[in-house]
Amino acid sequence: MVATDSEDELALSSSALDALKQFYAERDARAEHFAKLHQKAEELHEAATSQDDSEPKLLSMDAFTEDWNESQFWYSDECANFFAKQLLKDATAETKIAVVSAPSVFVQLKNILNAADPSQPKPTIYLLEHDRRFAVFPEFVFYDFAKPTQLPEQLKSSINHLILDPPFLSTDCQTKSALTVSWLLSKEKKPTKLVICTGERMQPLIMKLYKNHGIFTTDFEPVHAKGLANEFYCYANFECLGWKHKEES
């Protein structure tokens, strides 16, 4: 039996309706998920600033699945925590810390600061990130590496400690990310802390882009939660107990 035009139109309409229902169901599920994330972030903030003795719950990157379209590869909790501690070392209430395209480090910063004595002064932290899911945090600042200096004016030349993990292993992304770093870092005489994590094959470009910042290749090997095929290097402009200059092979 041959279907009539009207039957084809009815079948198409039914299929389109099912697709539309699925779209709205997924949209509502995402909205509900983000609302819960926002509530969790607010609860953590309130717990950290309250005067009671209850221990705030730890934030986890499990709430934020990696999006490969955004070139997202989270560090392991141990690795992110290590970076967070290096950024916090020697920090004061006047220190401003920027985490650029490395949200797993930001989450560990939040955990450490939330668990700290509320009466103690804390540095100001910012998360510069393209993924708007992280807008659940009040420290979120939308960042697009393609527009390296389109950021709030108050951030210009204000950052003392900074970690950057450029999302793409390309000359364009790395160069524009370096422009962001130069725009953000404080021009005061006191030393700044700078950490760059990116692929091993970017090493010559990193040395060129950050020459004026005293950058060097460290022997620390960043660890990603789900592994990573590309060899990853950590570059920095300061030494610490966790790393030293990498010996040339």
From TrEMBL:
Subcellular locations according to the entry: Cytoplasm
Q: Which residues form the signal peptide?
A: none
Which GO terms fall under molecular function for this chain's record? protein-lysine N-methyltransferase activity
Kind of enzyme, top EC level? transferase
Q: Give the Enzyme Commission number.
A: 2.1.1.-
- Lineage top rank: taxon: Eukaryota
- Function of this protein? S-adenosyl-L-methionine-dependent protein-lysine N-methyltransferase that trimethylates elongation factor 1-alpha at 'Lys-79'.
Protein name from the UniProt record: Protein-lysine N-methyltransferase EFM5
Organism, by scientific name, is Podospora fimiseda
